[in-house]
Specification:
This protein is 73% helix and 3% strand. The protein has 255 residues and is mainly alpha-helical. It has one domain: Four Helix Bundle (Hemerythrin (Met), subunit A). It has a two-stranded antiparallel ribbon. A hairpin with a 2-residue loop joins strand 1 and strand 2. Helix 6 runs antiparallel to helix 7.
């Protein structure tokens, strides 16, 4: 059995999970009900628990691509890009929540069906921690060239890591872990976002997604969240996607 980092276990205790936006028990129960087939205006749209993970992976890719491009342009002398570059701080907070959730839930479940597979991905996470530390140090020193180099290195390693997870780790997870256990693991994973930061997470994530990912995430939330909680989340999504809300509502008539 792998030994997971103690800092993750300490930071995300059982009490923290219970205090999350809606209970893990509710998420687990609802995830067990169905394989997630839904009818939209264009036919059958199928969503599964791992689609939520792939969607946020795409948001990470998109945001860091913008941050990296802004850092490079800044190093070349272009002004007015500081706000874009400084997105790296919240970006990394979201990445840490995501990685801790994987280590607490996904990787532990995977260990039962594919021993030792997740160990290399834990090492990737520690490498991404180091990449952020280097970026943070470079930006704090106001060294534009070092910052551009650090964002490029961060993006390079993140993209490789996410590609490996999508094509290898989550393929094994989807094929070898029973659907109810997938749902349970994804529910626990999502609870590592602090309740008070959930609006920030939605405001960051949804503008970075293309429509299919938005639809997947919204459908999954609609199915797993209690109705009053989803009503609040829906308003956050509506605000985040702005003029694209009409298209999302067309795709999901039950909104």
């Amino acid at each position: 059995m792998l030994s997971w980092p103690s800092r993750a276990k300490k930071k995300y205790s059982r009490q923290h999970l219970v205090r999350s936006r809606f209970s893990v028990a509710n998420r687990i129960y609802l995830f067990r009900q169905v394989m997630f087939y839904n009818q939209n205006t264009e036919g059958i749209f199928r969503v599964e628990p791992v689609d939520a993970i792939r969607a946020i992976h795409n948001a990470f890719r998109n945001d860091l691509a913008h941050i990296d491009a802004a850092a490079l342009d800044s190093a070349r002398g272009k002004a007015g890009l500081a706000a874009t570059v400084e997105r790296f701080r919240f970006f990394n907070e979201a990445l840490v929540w995501h990685a801790h959730g994987e280590e607490l839930a996904i990787f532990l479940v995977l260990e039962n069906v594919a021993p030792l597979v997740a160990e290399a991905y834990v090492k990737d996470h520690r490498g991404l921690d180091a990449a952020f530390d280097e970026l943070n140090k470079s930006y704090a020193s106001r060294d534009l060239l070092a910052t551009a180099r650090a964002t490029a290195a961060f993006r390079f390693h993140l993209n490789i890591h996410l590609d490996k997870e999508d094509t290898h780790l989550y393929r094994i997870f989807a094929e070898r872990v029973a659907l109810p256990e997938q749902g349970k693991a994804v529910g626990i994973m999502s609870s590592t976002v602090p309740q008070e930061r959930f609006p920030e997470m939605v405001a960051w994530m949804f503008p970075l997604m293309e429509q299919n990912d938005r639809e997947s995430m919204t459908r999954i939330w609609q199915m797993v969240m209690p109705a009053p909680v989803f009503a609040g989340a829906k308003e956050l999504i509506k605000k985040a996607v702005a003029s694209d809300w009409a298209e999302l509502a067309r795709r999901i008539p039950t909104l």
